[in-house]
C-alpha cells in the first residue's frame, strides 16, 4: 500500500515538472521565437537543470512536439454535440472566442505554427497537428452530409482545409493586432457565414 502511494506521488511530481517545463518553453517562444528555445534555457526558466529537461523530453524536437500538442488544446473547445454541423459550428465559435483570452501556451502554438512554414525541423510536427485537426473537421462535415444538414455537393476535405485556414489566419491576425480582430463579434459572424455556406438550400 505504501509503495503504491509513493509511485503515485512520483508520477504527480513528474507531471508537475513536465507542465512547468512546457510553460517555460512557451514563454521563451513568445519572447524570442523558436530560436530562443534551448533545453538549457527551458530548464533555467523553469528552475530546473538542463538534465531534467533532457530526461523528460530527450531532445529539442521532442520538446517542441510536446509543446505543440499541449498548446493546441487551448483552442479546441469541448464538443457537447455528436459529429455534424452543430459540432463544427461550435468548434468554429469556440476557437475564435478563445483568441480573446490567449494564454502564453496558445500564443506559442500560433508562433510555432507560422514558423513551421520555413523550418523543416518544425514542419513535420505541425503538419501532423494540422492533419489531426482536419480529420476532426472532415468527420463533422461527412456526418452533416450523411444527416442532410450539410450540402451533399461539398467535399469534406476541402471544407476542412478552408475552415482550418480561416481559423489559423484569424489567430495570426489577432496575434499581430488584437484591437483589429474583435473576437466576440467575429466569432458569431464567422460561424454564421459557415452555417449559410454549408446548410442545404430549401
From TrEMBL:
<keyword id="KW-0804">Transcription</keyword>
<dbReference type="Pfam" id="PF00440">
    <property type="entry name" value="TetR_N"/>
</dbReference>
<dbReference type="InterPro" id="IPR039538">
    <property type="entry name" value="BetI_C"/>
</dbReference>
<dbReference type="InterPro" id="IPR009057">
    <property type="entry name" value="Homeodomain-like_sf"/>
</dbReference>
<dbReference type="Pfam" id="PF13977">
    <property type="entry name" value="TetR_C_6"/>
</dbReference>
<dbReference type="InterPro" id="IPR036271">
    <property type="entry name" value="Tet_transcr_reg_TetR-rel_C_sf"/>
</dbReference>
<dbReference type="InterPro" id="IPR001647">
    <property type="entry name" value="HTH_TetR"/>
</dbReference>
<feature type="DNA-binding region" description="H-T-H motif">
    <location>
        <begin position="38"/>
        <end position="57"/>
    </location>
</feature>
<feature type="domain" description="HTH tetR-type">
    <location>
        <begin position="15"/>
        <end position="75"/>
    </location>
</feature>
<keyword id="KW-0238">DNA-binding</keyword>
<protein>
    <submittedName>
        <fullName>TetR/AcrR family transcriptional regulator</fullName>
    </submittedName>
</protein>
<keyword id="KW-0678">Repressor</keyword>
<dbReference type="InterPro" id="IPR050109">
    <property type="entry name" value="HTH-type_TetR-like_transc_reg"/>
</dbReference>
<keyword id="KW-0805">Transcription regulation</keyword>
Amino acid at each position: 500500500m505504501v509503495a503504491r502511494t509513493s509511485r503515485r506521488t512520483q508520477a504527480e511530481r513528474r507531471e508537475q515538472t513536465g507542465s512547468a517545463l512546457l510553460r517555460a518553453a512557451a514563454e521563451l517562444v513568445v519572447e524570442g521565437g523558436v530560436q530562443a528555445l534551448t533545453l538549457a534555457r527551458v530548464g533555467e526558466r523553469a528552475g530546473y537543470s538542463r538534465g531534467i529537461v533532457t530526461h523528460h523530453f530527450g531532445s529539442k524536437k521532442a520538446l517542441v512536439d510536446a509543446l505543440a500538442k499541449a498548446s493546441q488544446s487551448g483552442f479546441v473547445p469541448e464538443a457537447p454535440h455528436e459529429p455534424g454541423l452543430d459540432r463544427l459550428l461550435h468548434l468554429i465559435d469556440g476557437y475564435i472566442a478563445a483568441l480573446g483570452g490567449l494564454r502564453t501556451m496558445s500564443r506559442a502554438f500560433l508562433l510555432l505554427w507560422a514558423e513551421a512554414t520555413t523550418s523543416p525541423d518544425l514542419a513535420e510536427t505541425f503538419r501532423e497537428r494540422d492533419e489531426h485537426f482536419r480529420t476532426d473537421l472532415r468527420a463533422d462535415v461527412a456526418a452533416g452530409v450523411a444527416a442532410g444538414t450539410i450540402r451533399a455537393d461539398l467535399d469534406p476535405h476541402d471544407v476542412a482545409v478552408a475552415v482550418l485556414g480561416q481559423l489559423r489566419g484569424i489567430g495570426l491576425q489577432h496575434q499581430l493586432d488584437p484591437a483589429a480582430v474583435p473576437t466576440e463579434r467575429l466569432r458569431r459572424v464567422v460561424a454564421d457565414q459557415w452555417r449559410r455556406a454549408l446548410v442545404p438550400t430549401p
